[in-house]
């Protein structure tokens, strides 16, 4: 089947990004494409495997302490602040605080029905300037505020619950951006982000119409690490499942930041057919077999930025691919494998890059992958002898908490 070439039309995609409950309507546009970085997958250099050693330094290994009060089942979001690591587990519904050496320190907030407690924690965001942690309670449609240093409860921001499910949260200046999934997929005003005033909880804008930005798709899906990325930077990023445009979330509003280009990127017509097959109910069965069979590119995720580099994942059909883009040279490399070769040769551990700051990049060995790590790397003597905290890694057991790897960024010529 001949696939139509994707034409990137950023002015159309984002011209109606914020419909404006206040009648603002001055949503971000890219009238001439200025400031938007295009990453052309079709022109990328294909490699057998992308290697951590080609872009990052040898990692500091952080073996998270395993205690009854901090058993992590699934890492949904991670942030580093000073000498602390904040980890949200969306299965246990808890925000854990660890020291940089992996020692467990505290919880932020507690689950319950009392004052300052949340019912269903699904995401968090840190305001480093004001020293506040926002915890998003999707059951209450509220953001709970805690002191970043003491973890004491401060107050809550209750939004107007309209029956739509919101799972992901990002603070930007005096605004909160919260994702929004549809109750009625046929609603012409179906949109993806709510802009909320942090003082009043009033929704000040409705952003990113699903029809313009995400090919009409807006279902009740939750994905690991959510839809917000580079959360600790001045311009965090947002991208949805079938969009080719990465949006920057800034105190001044939304703006297009990156465009992912390929002749194989899934089209509006394909998604329209998938939506038709799935029906109007956002909680109904979803059949994505057409995407797999057609080999369409979709689901750009795991977006990480550091020192002039960008890394992300995408799916082509049912196969996961990885991309590295150098903002200085404009070179893009892609592969079906991204290997931390500092741990062992031909490493195919399922590691996720999940965070970056001015110092380096954090990747995670999830708890579910530890048995594989023990059987195929430790037991077979493949773990390199110079790996940091090697003895702790050798003593890991099934049921241990995830392991974090912090790779410093190498110094590059300016």
- What's the CATH architecture name? 6 Propeller
Biggest sheet, open or closed, and with what strands and sense? 5 strands, mixed
* Strand-residue proportion: 35-45%
Count of helix runs: 6
Classify the secondary structure makeup into a structural class: mainly beta
Q: Estimate the mean pLDDT confidence.
A: 87
CATH topology: Neuraminidase
**Strand runs, count:** 28
Report Rg.
21 Å
List keywords for this structure.
globular, 28 strands, 414 residues, 6 helices, mainly beta
Short summary:
With 414 residues, the chain is mostly beta strands.
What would you note in describing this structure?
It is a single chain. With 414 residues, the protein is mostly beta strands. It has a single domain, classed as Neuraminidase (6 Propeller), CATH 2.120.10.30. The protein is built from six helices and 28 strands. The N terminus is likely disordered. The strands form seven sheets. Strands 1-20-19-18-17 form a five-stranded mixed sheet. The chain has a five-stranded mixed sheet with strand order 2-24-23-22-21, with no helix packed on it. A four-stranded antiparallel sheet has the order 4-28-27-26.
Secondary-structure map:
Elements: H1 10-15, E1 37-40, E2 45-46, E3 50-51, E4 59-63, E5 75-81, E6 84-89, E7 94-99, E8 104-107, E9 121-127, E10 132-137, E11 142-147, E12 153-158, E13 169-172, E14 175-179, E15 191-197, E16 203-209, H2 210-213, E17 228-229, E18 237-238, E19 245-250, E20 253-261, H3 268-278, H4 289-294, E21 297-306, E22 309-316, E23 319-326, E24 332-335, E25 338-339, E26 352-356, E27 360-365, H5 370-378, H6 390-394, E28 403-408
Parallel strand pairs: 1-20, 2-24, 3-25
Antiparallel strand pairs: 4-28, 5-6, 6-7, 7-8, 9-10, 10-11, 11-12, 13-14, 14-15, 15-16, 17-18, 18-19, 19-20, 21-22, 22-23, 23-24, 26-27, 27-28
């Amino acid at each position: 089947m001949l696939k139509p070439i994707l034409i990137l039309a950023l002015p159309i995609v984002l011209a109606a990004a914020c419909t404006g409950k206040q009648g603002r309507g001055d949503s971000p546009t890219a009238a001439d494409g200025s400031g938007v970085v295009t990453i052309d997958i079709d022109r990328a250099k294909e490699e057998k495997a992308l290697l951590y050693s080609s872009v990052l330094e040898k990692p500091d290994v952080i073996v998270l302490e395993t205690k009854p009060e901090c058993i992590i089942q699934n890492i949904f979001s991670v942030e580093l602040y000073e000498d602390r690591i904040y980890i949200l587990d969306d299965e246990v519904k808890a925000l854990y605080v660890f020291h940089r050496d992996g020692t467990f320190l505290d919880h932020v907030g507690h689950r319950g029905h009392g004052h300052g407690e949340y019912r269903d924690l699904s995401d968090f965001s840190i305001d480093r300037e004001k020293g506040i942690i926002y915890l998003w309670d999707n059951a209450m449609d509220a953001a709970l505020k805690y002191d970043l240093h003491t973890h004491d409860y401060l107050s809550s921001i209750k939004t107007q619950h309209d029956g739509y499910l919101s799972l992901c949260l990002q603070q930007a200046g005096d605004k909160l951006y919260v994702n929004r999934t549809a109750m009625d997929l046929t609603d012409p005003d179906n949109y993806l982000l709510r802009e909320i005033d942090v003082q009043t909880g009033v929704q000040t804008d409705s952003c990113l119409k699903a029809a313009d930005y995400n090919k009409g798709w807006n279902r009740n899906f939750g994905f690991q690490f959510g839809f917000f990325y580079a959360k600790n930077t001045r311009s965090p990023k947002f991208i949805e499942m079938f969009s080719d445009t990465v949006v920057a979330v800034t105190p001044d509003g939304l703006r297009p930041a990156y465009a992912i280009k390929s002749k194989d990127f899934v089209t509006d017509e394909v998604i329209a057919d998938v939506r038709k097959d799935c029906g109007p109910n956002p909680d109904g069965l979803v059949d994505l077999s057409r995407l797999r069979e057609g080999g369409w590119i979709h689901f750009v995720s795991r977006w990480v930025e550091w020192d002039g580099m960008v890394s992300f994942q995408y799916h082509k059909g049912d196969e996961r691919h990885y991309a590295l883009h150098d903002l200085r040279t404009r070179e893009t490399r892609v592969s079906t494998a991204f290997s931390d070769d500092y741990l062992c040769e031909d490493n195919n551990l399922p590691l996720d890059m999940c965070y970056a700051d001015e110092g380096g990049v954090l990747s995670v060995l999830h708890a579910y992958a530890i048995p594989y790590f023990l059987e195929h790397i430790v037991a077979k003597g493949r773990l390199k002898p110079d790996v940091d905290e090697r003895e702790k890694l050798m003593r890991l057991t099934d049921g241990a908490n995830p392991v974090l790897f912090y790779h410093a960024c190498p110094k590059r010529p300016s």
